Each structure stands twice: as C-alpha cells, then as structure tokens.
C-alpha cells in the first residue's frame, strides 16, 4: 500500500499517516518526491483497506501496490534513484566506471591498479580484501591489511572504494573503509547479511545471484530498503546456463527489465559475466548500449601474474581503451535522446 | 588438415593436391584467399600425415586443424566471409538491418511492412510463409501464396528477401523466391535439411538452437559448408535458461566468441531473443555494440493485430528510431577503430 | 471441445456428430472408451459452442478442453493407452525393456547385441541405422544395410525392433523394417517429420527435446495423434542444464507429470540421460521406481570397442543384472498397489 | 597429499608426521581407517614433495590427491562415513526418513507432525525455526520459541531433530537444540557459516545450492571437514533449469555421482525438489532406488492450512504410505546385493 500525500501536505500530516500505520502494526517508509511525498506501508501480510487513510488530512490517495516488492518498485518511486559513492553519482546521466583487481594482493598492486583506473578515466576502485572462495585452501584475501591499502589508494588517487563484505562479522570493518559495500552473488540471498547491510549508512552494490530470477533479485534489494538503506546499486554479473563458451552467461536484458520495474540504478560486471579477457570489451560496450549506468571491471597491472581471475582481467591499456569507447557510446546515445525514463 | 599453397602455385598444382586427397578417399575443398589458396581436407576420421602433401609442387605447408569444425574455422580462412544477399554485403563494414513480420498474413500486410522497413533504412525483408508452430492447430503460414507476396514486396521496394524453409519438401520452392533461406532454431540440428541447404546456391541464415553450445552451432554451419555452400550467416536468437523475465536469454557473448573462432558473419535477433517489445531496442543497440554484423527484427504495421508474436514486434516508427540509433553506434565504433579483426 | 456420447449411442449417432463437426470446418477424432465413446474436435482456432452438439441424439455432453493439447490429454481419454510393439504391450502392468547398441556397426554386432538383450530378459531391440551426428564427418550409420541386419536379428531372437527415422526421405524405408519408429530428441520439433510419423501405421517412440518443456513435449505428441497415429510412446532422455557431472540431466519428475496429464505411456533412456555407464543402473532403477513403463538402454557386446557412445553402453552382464533388479522393483510396487492411475 | 601409515604404525609415528606437516606451515588431519591410519595435508597452495614424509618411521607411502577436494574424497577415505544423529545411523544399510513441516508454526502443529512422522516410521523430525525467505515481509519463523517446541517434540517422540541455522548469529542457539544442523541451499556457499558449522560438534546436513555443480557441492562440504567436523550429510534438493512443470529439477544422478567420489552419505529432499505434492511419492521411491541413504520430506498435519509450502507437503497418511514403500524397495535392493561400494 502506498499513501500518496497532496502537494501541500505538511510534516504533521505525514506524521499522522505514519502514526496510523504503526497503530495498525505495520511499518511506514517516507518516500520524498519532487512534487509530493508518499508513505509506503510494509509488514502487512494481507491487503490493507485504503479507507483507513483516505480520510486523513493531506492524503491524496491510497494505492494498492501489486508486486511482491514495494520499496524498490517504480510504482512507489517513479524517479530514478541516484546513489552517491564518494561524490560520484551512480544512476545519473554519466556512466560510472569502477575498475580494479579481483583480490588485493599487495600495497603496490592496488596502488598501481588505482593509478591505472584513474588514468583510464575510471571514478571508482574495486578490490577484494575478503574473498569468498570455492575452496577452503585458496587465498582468502588480505583482510584489514587489504582495506588499509585501499584507503591509501583512495587518498592518493581520489577514487571512491567499492569492496566486498562476506559476512556480518567483518561488515563493521569493511563499512569503515568502503565508500560502497559490495554484496557478492553467492550472498544475494544471505538474508542476515542483507539486513546488516540495510542498517548501514554506506551505499550497497548488490550482485545478482548465479541462478536468481529478476523477482528474487529485486526482493533481495527490498531487504536492504526495508531496513532503511535506500542507497542501492544493482549489478548483473552473469547467470548459470548450459553454455560453455563463457564462464557465465551475461544476461544484459535484465538491464532494461530492471529499469522498467525499479528506480534503482543497475550496472554490469563483464569480467565475471564472461570470464574471458577478450570478451570483456565487447560486452562492456554492449552493456552501456543496453542502458547500464556503469561497469565494474577487473583491471590488474600485470594480469598474467594475478593470484585470482587473471585470465579475465584487463591490462591498464585495455581498460583505458574500453573506457574511452564506452563513454563515447554513452554520450552518443544521451545526445540523441530525451532524458531516460523517469530521469530528472 | 589444411594444405596451404605457395603464392605462386597455379591451378595445376592445386588440382594435383585435390587429386591426392581424393585418392586417399577424402574430400577436398578449395579455399581461395587474398594471397594464396588453401585446400581443406574433410572426411578423414583420424589424422592425416602432412608428409603426404608437403612434397607436392606448389605446397607451402600442411597444417593439422585442431578443432572439430574445419571449414568454418578462422584457422582455415583468416579473412571475414562477406555474404551477398540481393546485393547487400553481410559481414562487411556496414551493419545490415533485416525487418518484417513473423508470419506473412496478407498481401497488404507484407507490402506495408516492406515499405516500413525501407523507410526505416532496412536493407532486407523478413517474413515467414512456412511457420514451425508448437501446436498443430496454430496458423501454419500462407505457403507459396506468401512467397509470392514477398516477391511482390521485393519488386516494389528493392529489399532482399529472407524467409524460412522448414523441411526438404518445401525447400525447392522457398529457394526459388528467397534471396537468403533461413534455417530456424528448432531445425539447427535437422541434418537432412542442413545438407539440402548446403547444396543450395542461395545464402543461408542459420539460427542457433535453443540449447545449442557454441561448438554445436559451428558444427551445424560446418554441415552447410561441407556440402559446398560457403554463403552462411549465423544468428543468435536467445537460449533457454531459468530466467523468466524474457522469453529466451539473449547470449550476446556468442558474438565475439564466434568472431574469434570463425570467419562467418553473425547477426542477432532481439525479437525472439527477448520476446518483449520494450526490450528489443536496448538489446539491438547492445548487439551492435558487441560487434554483430546486423539484426533481424520483427516489424509489423499494426503489432497489436498480428496473428503471431505481435507482443514482440516493433511498429514502423519504433523500427526507424532503433535503426537510426544502431547505425549511429556502428559508425561511431567503426570510426574509432582499425578495421575489425581479420577484415579487409 | 470433447463431445461425450451416451453409453447407448450407436454408430449412426457418432457419424452424425462427426458430420456436424466437419460442416463447421473442423476435424473430428473418435476416441473409443470402455463405457462410452467421445468425439474430439480439433482445428478450431477459437472456442466452439457446446450448444451445437448437445441437441444431437446420443450426445451426453459437450465439454470444453482447457489445455493446448487435446488428443494426448487425460481429459480426452482417462484410460492409459497401451501401445503394441511386435506384440509387446507398452504402458501395461509389466515394464518393457528395450536394449541394443547406439549405432548398428555390423551384422555380427547387432546379432550379438540382440542375443544379449533377449538373454537379459529384454523384449525390444534398439539400434540406429541412420544416426543424427553433430559432425558431418562422423559415422552416419549403415542405412538400409543396417535395417536388414535388424530384421535378421528380429527373426532370430523374436525381439521387436525400435529404430530411428531422421528425415521424411528415409521414413518409408525405416517404417518397412521397424516395429516402432523412433523420433530423436533433435527432431522433437521437426514438425514435417512429426506429420509424416503421424500418418504411419507403426507405433512411434518420441524422445523429449534437450530443452523441451513438458507442454512442448505433449504438443509434439499431439502432432502425431492429430494426424491419426494414436500409438505413441513418450521418452525422457535428459535435458540441458549447467550440471556437468552427467552428459544431460535426467528429469525423472517428468514421468509422474506426464502420467498426470496424458494417457500416453512414458519410458526413460538412462544411457543418453546420464552419458556414463556407472550411472545407468542406478538411474534405471530410479526410473522404474518413479513409475516409468519401461527403459531404452544402450547395450553393446563389447562397449569399449563401440563406434559411438561406448562409454555409456552396458555390457550384456550389466544389462542382465540391471534388468533383473528393475523387474523386481516393478513387481514389488505393483503387488503393493491398486492398479495405477487410470489403468484397467 | 595423503600420508598413509603402515598397519603397525603407532601414535608416536603419527604425531611425528603431523609435526613435520605443521613445520612446513600446513594443516594435518588424521583419518582413522580399519586397517591403517592416513594423515591428510591441507593448506598447501602447490604440490608437496612426497619425499618429505616417506623417510619417516611408520610411513607406508605419500600419495598425491588429484582432486580439488581432499577430505571428502573417497581417495582419502575409502569406507562410507556413517553419521550418527541422535543415535540414528545415516549412511548405513538402513534408509533414514526425516519428516516434518517446512516451518514450525505452533506447539500443536509440530507435536502433531512429530507424532505423524513417528507413526509413519520416520526416525528424524524436521522443522524450521529460522526461515530464509525471499521476501522481507514473509513469516520468518518462530526463532527460539520454535526450537523449544522441537525439543518438546523430541522428548515426547524420541525423534532426532534436524533444523536449519541461517546465520552465524543464531548458530549457537540452533546448535544447542538440534541433533543435526541444516545448512540450506541458499547458504551452500556462505563460507563464514560453513566455517562456523565446521567448528560445531553437531552433525551437519548440507543442501546443494540451486545452481551448484557437483564439484562446488563437494568443496562446500570440504569447508566443514577442513574445520574438523567430519559428521556431514549431503542433500540433493533440485536445481534451477528451464523446466517449469516442477519448482526445481531434481537431479537424482548426483546420488551415484557423489557416492563414487566421496565417502559422505547423501539423502534427497523430494519436497523442494519437485514443489508439488503428487510428485513427492514417485520421486521419493526413485531417490531410494537410485541409492540415496534417506529422505527429508515435508509432512504437515493439515497441509492445506500450512503457512508455507503447504502445496508440497504430505499428509500423515501419504507420508506413512510413501515411507512404507520406500523401505520395501530399499530392503529388496539390499537383499539382492553385496554390501554397497565401500560399506562395511
């Protein structure tokens, strides 16, 4: 249920609506809009009677929301959400490029990566200090030491930092250093981690699970918003199929599909999405042409010596060339169009 | 095995190599190149000894081909194949746009569609006269009547015609009218139909099967080339996965993958690939950005009244806008690049 | 639409109903039942008015059939169909075991296979004379020579013959020799071949396509029945998924699913379904326990020397042991139960 | 690397091997066998030199283990592992049946379920106190209250308790009450939770992830063993595919596949595996016939009034009938066979 306020409704009117919602045993979420405010109701198992609200002062109408997801839905918020990561606007008119190594291996490696990303025109730096690994015997990341190197790289280059939290235990630490906390594909339905991330004041980058439907993806994001964190970036990174010419099958159609249903920005990870270096540039361009708000790409100063995922990492030169082409395509399309659906 | 001739080798040298191949009980295929000719050997179940050929006059070297596919392989022919459809070059520097209805419903409908495609800058007209349908009770196409309407549309608009042959019985008829004969996804491994198409002198558009691996796709094309038809265009149209937000999952990564392994051109069908009208334009742009040589798109003068697949057909206006953007992206990328891999 | 006749309705009543159906431009299919006859209407694109029939003499009621498939539906025929293959009842109380090599390689090989199958208690012999092969350069089968060896094996052992037709060109020949004609997984939606098989007077074994949904599978069978061939056996042989520990993923849940929706018998192919010899026996037992009416299994006198699929073929000893266990499980379950759903 | 001790090697010999391993910076795991003990080395990123150990007293040989998984491998331990859950042997000659509701809804509901399971001959009781739910607004379980009801049900019926832990925060609590702690499919690669479960002294039931390969499944179990918990039961519960006639596609071939590669017992969940009540009994029988060590099945006193998953729950009568048939099939197969591979 969405209670839409009149344009002239004041804070007292809104407070009264919230009070009524809570009296009924539900939660209220205030959604500020350009013209007018809406209050979304969650926590109800069945339908709520619109008449409960339509007689309150300042209420324009009470609308039933038909989807399982509410707060992430465009029905609830028609305008695109812009997520601010260290001052960079994700979901706005400019595409955002985030680059860096799969795992942080050393101070030198992450600093060189950061310089390469900045030189190539990237705005954000990625790098894992905690790595979810299929084998218990594989390198699991440098932990807090890695986070400190990331902070040093930010200080030197000015790039915002995106890094993964793999559990609630290390979330606090990751949150202190990161400008945006990543929830990985394997954790997309780790609901306890989602709740913790939802209580964070840092933006969250949520990757689509390997066999996640679009609805499950949006419901995972709903967990974040339901806890109060509205700064959420979605990320397509490929799904599991029978096809064996790439590591995963990058499902770019989810980009326009998300944009139709949700106000949250969506970016694409062509590195995990293909698992092969020579497919990264073509699929990056394809992602931008499909309308993605940005890319998260693996870049390594010396890909052939990477401890993990080297075969899918770009060299600094390849990143710069790819980034350049992506910006050109994004600008071309922006220049030909009216502002994107719902954008302001 | 590939027998590569010296630059100065003459027809008699080549004939002698072919003779030796046939004496051994195999088939020979002459592959003319810019600099020099190669002769490909097929029909051998095990490896062939290079020494059988390296002493013949005019032979530069004899190379073992490592893949299951031979004639379609870039190892066999490094230059891109350009397929000529009614004078239109598919696989060259310009992208090619093929539009039209799923099924031919009437003379008026196909003529209007053709005018819309031409007005939008398309070069080829698609439309099914024979339709493979899941239900025996569904509309199965107008048959030869439909082919005649296509021919009339070509006469009026100058557009080349792409239409599907669904069996060997009707292939002769389809071949007479079509400028390019389509083999549909359900028939990608209908080997008898592939052999018949391989003996045709018309170009073939081969669609990827719904659960076809890249290797199976290339092997299906190999059937065509092995029978002597080298004018083959590949087409990605989406694969079957668990994802339910689109009718199929369009696997654009197959575009650069095919281009790495084969000299054949590949185009994309975003209409069947997504099954939803509002996803067609974004995925068309993505396909072109990924490097596809063209698109085959469903266009209907009045999509909402189409007998089949109306919900995934573009209106004439939508087609024109999409085509315009795709050409702009293709030109932008072409202008920034050296000629594409292997292109001349 | 299904027109159900009264118990006492005579041939003249039935003929009158068929005449009315044809006058309306549709096809009629007489479905004889134990108690009373029904007449199924196909060829109508929209709903038919029950009132057209309910006033005719001998008509009990006219029922709308809700599914896309009609003739294969249990709504149309509640009793299980029993298919007779060379005197063997498929779909009855006894399970049916069909064994033999993937491809017929020689007279000796198929005769030895047949003896092994008979010795192991099998009732039917399988073996391909025409093979659909991914590569144009692979062994494509012995053709009519192979069919003659099959006939000789039948003469010696008394086993009924199941062999595949891969196209309409060779269907006539295959039909002459076979007791049951197989349509392979790659041809499940080769609608021209289905129509030809539907006009055959031999039983058809229809394999599920590699990425076929249950509805598509039943609709493919509907093509056969719509042309007049009601002797159809369905066969699960594994579907394409991401799982890589078997060649395909055997989807045994389709066995009870088919039995709920259709009156046609369903058997299972654990050889192609797993692609690995050591998985064949466990999955055979599982198939029988799930309620399958039989198995079609690859048996080769010397699996390690088979020209194709040797790694998934059972030896004669393995077949005999597996067959024995399967019969024991089937008898155990039959003895504990009321007759199966719909069985008589 | 596996260091196999001589039959007469004593504790001091074994201790010396462990010491050498730890000196090299690796971990040692003592694997007691019937005849002789082995010591498995983990934590090495590259190969270890066998010569490091072969000169130590009591060492028979040092063997390189070829797979990514070590401790779960049959190469490391040829005999089947028997897991003891509240005195019930899982992985032994008798099949084990675990039944109960999806979620614990009330004291009465879980007590009635437990009585039904015991009446039907089940040995273990399942029921979720913490539920991972796709929607943040769905019922999330009764928490500790639910665990207390489970304990009460155990007291009354004597059934061992299997219940899920969804995060490290609630693991301690779940561990206190449970006889076996379940890790759900969505958490199969929640490596922090796996490490916590690996440090538990309670047996773990590990469910296969929805898009998990066999290798990933075994590697997830390896996390548990690597932390010291060798009491691990694997569970197949269906994977994500395009097939839409069941909620998931139950991949029974993984049962013999696991048994070939690992010594750990594997059971099957036909309720989540099919998502439809009428498929549960056939697939239960199929699982047992394929060799599964048991089943975990949803049973509800009044399925139609269940708060979650009611459509896939069996009634008490259906459970009893299914259990009876499964035991009969298991006994039949056991009576016909030599002991299973590796069993004692």
Tell me, briefly, the overall form of chain A.
Answer: globular
- How many structural domains can be distinguished in the coordinates of chain A? 2
User: What ranges of chain A have pLDDT less than 50 throughout 5 or more consecutive residues?
Assistant: 340-344
CATH architecture of the largest domain in chain A, by name, is Alpha-Beta Barrel
Helical content class of chain A = 25-40%
Strand order of the largest sheet of chain A: 13-12-11-10-9-8-7-14
- The CATH homologous superfamily name of the largest domain in chain A equals Aldolase class I
What amount of the residues of chain A lies in strands? 15-25%
Largest interface: A-B, 39 and 39 residues
Order of helices and strands of chain A: EHEEHEEEEHEHEHEHEHEHEHHEH
Q: Rg of chain A to the nearest angstrom?
A: 21 Å
- Helix tally of chain A equals 11
Instruction: Give a quick account of the main beta sheet of chain A: strands, pairing sense, barrel closure.
Output: 8 strands, parallel
What fold name stands as the CATH topology of the largest domain in chain A?
TIM Barrel
Oligomeric state of the chains in view: homotetramer
The overall average pLDDT of chain A, rounded, is: 92
Structural class of chain A: alpha/beta
Distance from first to last alpha carbon of chain A: 25 Å
